[in-house]
Write a structure and sequence with these properties.
The chain is α/β, with parallel strands linked by helices. The protein has 15 helices and 13 strands. The chain has a single domain, classed as Amidase signature (AS) enzymes (Alpha-Beta Complex). It is globular. The chain starts with 9 loop residues before the first helix and ends in a 13-residue tail after the last helix.
């Protein structure tokens, strides 16, 4: 039997839509039906905008039929993390305080996806104010992992990860301040891309920490991530951190080979890792080596201080953003976010500036490393997703604090702003494992090519989550 349209990828759907073999209306109806079937169980969406999505799909169909095809995202449903502004529409930030907030303007990424002809089925669930990695939201309920609904999907972009993995959208947007695209992508078994800081405008995105925030795609395949990135990347004068870097048709630059690509392995990223997770990642690296990649060990000494610098930076910046509400409406925050915001009032200016010196040192060391290798590869997360409500996880028989370890491997690349893609690389106990591929600044083409080669080599990793097999 032919797969339902919502189970397909952008790469599969765009030629069908372009050639008028399927209708954007048929596609969005399949997506909305899947949302209706699964959202009560998985809680991926805070708001479903079905009427709007159908109108957008009808407009896309009319344009395509008249010969005005805009490109690979035309008619494609893309879910939006609910802290990206859409003009005059509820944007909650997953919070009580902003529960009825309606911005007067749309985020730049929303405007660019609209120009590309995308369809928006709704706003996805997230950790309150994006300040957390579980997506256990006290105001809207937890998003649930489609591989095991008793487990977290990761956060803060948990709803986007769940919706994409469970075919409740074709792709989605997330944000990443310490790992919030890559963590749920890894836990949910999809592709997540954190672009170079400044490549994608953050205008119209409610901030968590100004200097660490990124917006990026969460997709079913690497090529799909490239298509979404092409649409949202580019200079924006409304974002003071936006960088006028050249953009490209990333999907068209795939070489479909890793022969001669130099892969760096830093021992820091293989210390205190679940042994089965480590095994899956090392087997993935070995498969790239068999295709002609060259693997070598590298050393980045300042990584030992990266977690401290990341936490001081994110704590200080987040608490500055929320200071007035913390003073005036403290009880309206969830317990975990309130605790982190109060904690963020404690670091001194000395602490913050010391963290920025560590950051500068890391920048320099990574620049030196990327003179020697093309990419780095690491596990995305050192452990498997815990059950909802658990504050601890197990690593090789040792019970450790979740928060102490969840961004240990993702956070350094928010500090440095380097591009990272996470791709599924195996399974442990029936749960997906992700690996990160990191490149130099504006090296999206390189990391996406390596990820695409790996994905092509391993079609067996495209296995449906448990919730879709029942």
């Amino acid at each position: 039997m032919e797969k339902r349209l919502n189970t397909k990828t952008i790469s599969e759907l765009s030629p069908l839509l372009k050639n008028k073999e399927v209708s954007p209306v048929e596609l969005v109806d399949d997506v909305l039906e899947q949302i209706e079937t699964l959202n009560n169980k998985l809680n991926a969406y805070i708001e479903v905008t079905a009427e709007k999505a159908r109108k957008q799909a009808e407009a896309a169909e009319s344009e395509i039929l008249s010969g005005n095809y805009r490109g690979p995202l035309h008619g494609i449903p893309i879910a939006i993390k609910d802290l990206l502004y859409v003009a005059d529409e509820m944007t909650t930030m997953g919070s009580k305080i902003h529960r009825n907030f309606r911005p007067a303007y749309s985020a730049t990424v929303i405007e660019r996806l609209t120009e590309a002809g995308a369809v928006f089925p709704g706003k996805t669930n997230l950790h309150e104010y994006a300040w957390g990695a579980t997506n256990n939201n006290p105001h809207f309920g937890p998003a649930r992992n489609p591989w095991d609904p008793e487990r977290i999907p990761g956060g803060s972009s948990g709803g986007s990860g769940v919706a994409t993995a469970a075919h409740m959208t074709i792709a989605s947007l997330g944000t990443d301040t310490g790992g919030s695209i890559r963590i749920p992508s890894s836990f949910c078994g999809i592709v997540g891309l954190k672009p170079t800081h400044g490549l994608v405008s953050k205008y119209g995105c409610f901030p968590l920490a100004w200097s660490l925030d990124h917006i990026g795609p969460m997709t079913k395949t690497v090529r799909d991530a490239a298509y979404v990135l092409e649409a949202i990347a580019g200079y924006d004068p409304k974002d003071p951190t936006s960088f006028a870097a050249p953009t490209t048709s990333y999907a068209l630059t795939f070489k479909e080979s890793v022969k001669g690509v130099k892969i760096g392995i830093e021992p820091y990223f293989f210390d205190h890792v679940d042994k089965e997770v480590e095994k899956a990642v090392k087997q993935a690296i070995a498969s790239l080596e068999r295709e002609g990649a060259v693997v070598e060990t590298v050393r980045i000494p300042t990584l030992q201080y990266a977690q401290y610098a990341e936490m001081i930076t994110i704590l200080s910046e987040a608490s500055t953003i929320h200071h007035n509400h913390l003073v005036e409406r403290e009880e309206d925050f969830g317990d975990d976010v309130r605790f982190l915001l109060k904690l963020g009032e404690l670091p001194s200016a000395v602490d913050y500036l010391e963290a920025q010196q560590i950051r500068l040192k890391l920048d320099h060391e990574f620049m030196e490393i990327f003179n020697k290798v093309d990419v780095l590869i690491t596990p995305t997360i050192p452990f498997l997703p815990p059950k909802i409500g658990q504050d601890t996880v197990w690593i090789n028989g040792e019970e450790v604090n979740f928060l102490d370890h969840i961004i240990r491997f993702t956070g350094p690349f928010n500090l440095t702003g380097l591009p990272v893609v996470t791709v599924p690389c195996g399974f442990v106990q029936g749960l997906p494992v992700g690996m990160q591929i990191i490149g130099p600044a504006f090296g999206e083409g390189t990391i996406l090519n390596v990820a695409d080669v790996f994905e092509t080599l391993h079609p067996e990793l495209k296995y449906p989550p448990a919730v879709l097999r029942k």
